[in-house]
Write a structure and sequence with these properties.
With 79 residues, the chain is mainly alpha-helical. It contains 5 helices and no strands. It starts with a helix and ends with a helix.
């Protein structure tokens, strides 16, 4: 499983833990549900703005949980 897939899997896990549908989370992130689906399936990386929004919605920091570690890895890879 590559980094995009790992990140997508973690986003989906956190979304379900919060009890959000894809539509609900997409609305909170101000993105299209189709875009969220592509993130969750590992087809696309999130933008920096979406990463920040994910952290806020899930109420976690970069230092907390594997989403932070995965995101840091993704950001470093893309730069």
């Amino acid at each position: 499983m590559d980094r995009k897939e790992l990140l997508g899997k973690r986003i989906k896990e956190l979304r379900k833990l919060k009890g959000f549908t894809q539509d609900t989370l997409a609305e909170k992130l101000e993105i299209e549900p189709r875009q969220l689906s592509k993130l969750e399936t590992g087809k696309h990386y999130p933008s920096f703005e979406t990463i920040v929004s994910l952290l806020k919605v899930f109420d976690i920091t970069f230092e907390e949980g594997s989403i932070g570690n995965t995101i840091v890895s993704v950001v470093e890879k893309n730069n």
